[in-house]
Automatic annotation (TrEMBL):
One of its GO terms (biological process) is proteolysis. It comes from the Bacteria. This is Domain containing protein. Pfam families: Peptidase_M19. It comes from Candidatus Micropelagius thuwalensis. GO terms for molecular function: metallodipeptidase activity.
Amino acid sequence: MPFKSLALSLAILFILQGCSQENKQEASLQISHEDFLVLDAHLDTPIILDRPGFDISSRHDPMHDYAQIDLPRMREGGLDGGFWVIYTPQGDLTPQGYEDALAHAWHRNSVIDKMLIDHADNFMPATTADDAAAIVAQGKHVVYKSIENAYPLGLDVMRLDAFYEAGVRMVGLVHMTNNQFADSSTDPDGLKWNGLSPLGKDLIRRANALGMIIDMSHAHDLALAQAIDLSTTPIILSHSGAGHLYEHPRNVGDALLLDLAASGGVMHINSLSAYLKDLETDPARRPALSALFKQLQENPLKTEAEAEAFLEARRAIDKKYPPDFATFDDVMRHIYHAHALMGAAHIGIGLDWDGGGGVDGLQDITGLPKITQAMREAGLSDEDIAALWSGNLLRVLRLVEASRALSHEMP
């Protein structure tokens, strides 16, 4: 049995046995960061996998080639895997827009599948909650799939079925602007649906029936509140933050977080600096980056030379308009606040790697052991830490699996 498999088994045994305080102290000494089952709810790395010449088996530099996850650093940081994201930028709400978005989403799905084939010795697909520990026991990394932005489904929620068959087990309704399903927390034009659209409600019902986790990160508070009331399974926020600590539209206030917790849901803390604090950056930086990424969206990279030209252009922007970052302590403040407010059963980690996440002291996954150490120093128990790193996420996945089983039993 691989060492981590043995250590993980021991860790789970200590956590589940309800041992005495003396044994808990002994377990605390034995369980290291590497022994926890460490999953992230939102890995945007498929965006990077699509870059010509990128090799996930080689080590990369997050500040030079803007890649935060690869196999060497997964091993160093103890990241066992998580939900790998099929992200589609928001486009026009038109038949052509939907058609183009659907093709994009299936392409991104194929990028994940290609990684699984090309690196079968290191990655395995996961579709059930029990898969995670079984994959780690084989010394491999866990690949669940999720959708960020349901826009590619167009006006037909039954298209979600094909993605379920392809292994997708989480669906996020909306991204940076309103779509056909829900209002976004950051749409500059304000509300379109006053929360969920009728089609968005149908999508939640379909996800419940299929056995998919519903992710309401990016959604407007009204949409989140309605989703909590409507869904028959708990909602998650795959990469969000506490509005009490920083009033950004992407963050969620205490009252709504308490409703989320009461319904069994989970908020996974993100590390995107702009959602954690006011930043001191040149106002010209954002439009420069937006123009670069718009160009990328319109003209996807096809060759390694084009990829290097894109990276050079981004480095030039960083040099001319240096980024400002929040800090590791800012991330921990959100973790501690959510823990105190919602309880250990309702928090997780979704640091938005390769999607904008990263702060001073935590620029890539090699810094993950620092989170475990900080939580220990703050007095969190091994049980709490295990729940945050994967237990809560897998609990919700088990509940949606049960929901699917129940719906298929009904006449």
